[in-house]
């Protein structure tokens, strides 16, 4: 095994490993050391030929998986904490974000395993949340640290994710119990529409190092990040309050396009990219490192694992 030292992330070469799970188990300490040091590590050269092998490799990394709740896009479930990548239009980007940073409980560790790399594009890009925080304007950071950030979501059967899928139940009372425990405000409309509101910290201390990290989905889930024609259509059809998701300053103040664009520009400044290859396993510290998914062409299959839940 050799390690290619790059500023971020690190890369480990599996060489001629006969079995992905055995290799990951044998080198687990080195993988975690690299994640701790660099915020993410790409393991290249593992023999992952199909989905089952990818699922097994992801499980070997994350251990006991964390069930996703409040997902903003559908996924296929492959076992505890192991899923397909989000079903998101191939021609639309998924902007930089930290997985489930809007939830009361989020994963500390993410693992991605590549079964089929796309013909072009489709990178899972990364950005250092400490550097992003450092380079955001001081007054912007102070506002979000003072007030937090607010997320509103509208679950309806016509657009976005159905609440039954997002919360893993068809029982309204169970959804209400979950939301009460997690600090979400709940409003039911009609027979099948649910609106939730939650306010979270925009900056959190890393659970191990204590370093301050920009940890949220303020820009990704904001209306100004949507394609203009999509935003216009959804607003006309469902009204501003009926958008599948939108973000605000924690006191409810709307965000303007300039603020959202600025956050995304700072992310871009710190973005690193590496094209997927079959058999790649990418392990990410979800607190210290944001990730995105870029548009792509061709078939793309990435298996994702959520591990080590914590309360930000």
TrEMBL record:
Keyword list, A-Z: Antibiotic biosynthesis, Dioxygenase, Iron, Oxidoreductase
MF-aspect GO terms: dioxygenase activity
Name assigned to this protein: TauD/TfdA family dioxygenase
Names of the cofactor(s): Fe(2+)
Domain annotation TauD/TfdA-like: ranges: 16-303
Keyword Iron part of the UniProt annotation: yes
Any Pfam family hit: TauD
Organism field: Streptomyces pulveraceus
SUPFAM superfamilies reported in the protein's UniProt record: Clavaminate synthase-like
InterPro entries the UniProt entry points to: AlphaKG_dependent_hydroxylases, TauD-like_sf, TauD/TfdA-like
Highest taxon of the lineage: Bacteria
EC number, as in UniProt: 1.14.11.-
């Amino acid at each position: 095994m050799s390690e290619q030292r790059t500023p971020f992330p690190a890369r480990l070469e599996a060489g001629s490993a006969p079995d992905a799970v055995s290799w990951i188990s044998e080198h687990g300490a080195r993988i975690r050391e690299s994640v701790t040091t660099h915020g993410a590590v790409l393991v290249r050269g593992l023999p992952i030929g199909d989905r089952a092998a990818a699922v097994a490799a992801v499980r070997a990394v994350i251990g006991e998986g964390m069930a996703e709740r409040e997902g903003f896009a559908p996924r296929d479930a492959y076992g505890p904490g192991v899923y397909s990548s989000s079903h998101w239009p191939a021609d639309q980007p998924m902007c930089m974000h930290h997985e489930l940073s809007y939830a009361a409980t989020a994963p500390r560790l993410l693992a991605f395993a590549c079964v089929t790399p796309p013909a072009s594009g489709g990178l899972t890009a990364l950005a250092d949340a400490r550097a992003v925080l450092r380079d955001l304007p001081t007054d912007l950071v102070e506002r979000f640290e003072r007030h937090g950030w607010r997320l509103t979501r509208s679950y309806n059967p016509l657009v976005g994710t159905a609440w039954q899928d997002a919360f893993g139940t068809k029982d309204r009372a169970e959804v209400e119990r979950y939301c009460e425990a997690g600090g979400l405000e709940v409003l039911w409309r009609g027979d099948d529409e649910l609106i939730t509101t939650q306010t979270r910290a925009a900056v959190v201390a890393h659970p191990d190092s204590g370093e301050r990290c920009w940890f949220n989905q303020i820009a990704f889930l904001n209306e100004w990040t949507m394609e203009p024609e999509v935003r216009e259509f959804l607003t006309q059809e469902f009204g501003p309050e009926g958008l599948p998701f939108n973000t605000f300053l924690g006191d409810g103040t709307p965000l303007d396009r300039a603020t959202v664009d600025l956050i995304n520009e700072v992310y871009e400044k710190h973005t690193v990219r590496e094209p997927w290859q079959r058999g790649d396993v990418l392990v990410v510290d979800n607190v210290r490192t944001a990730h995105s998914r870029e548009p792509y062409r061709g078939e793309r299959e990435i298996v994702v694992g959520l591990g080590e839940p914590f309360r930000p």
